[in-house]
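ok here's Probable glutathione peroxidase 8 isoform X3:
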Amino acid sequence: MEPLATYPLKCSVPKARVFIVFLSMVLGTVMLCLLQLKFLKPKIKDFYSFEVKDSKGRIVSLEKYRGKILQRKNLGGISGSTLSAQGVKL
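and the structure:
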């Protein structure tokens, strides 16, 4: 069995072509990030534009509570937080 001979490593692709491919990949990634930031902006203007589920599972708009004092209770764990409305008007 013959010993393995070491051959000089040669790049079959010119360095300029590798650089162009790398640059185009970087530019493509940057463009995708910019498009994502532009089109995926949240369209929520204020707190009252949210919709939440009540204790019976119905969806309730928080616009209904505009002008009232809301108290947010964090119950922790999986259940998340709840809102309770006080009867006081501002």
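+1. Helices lie at 15-39.
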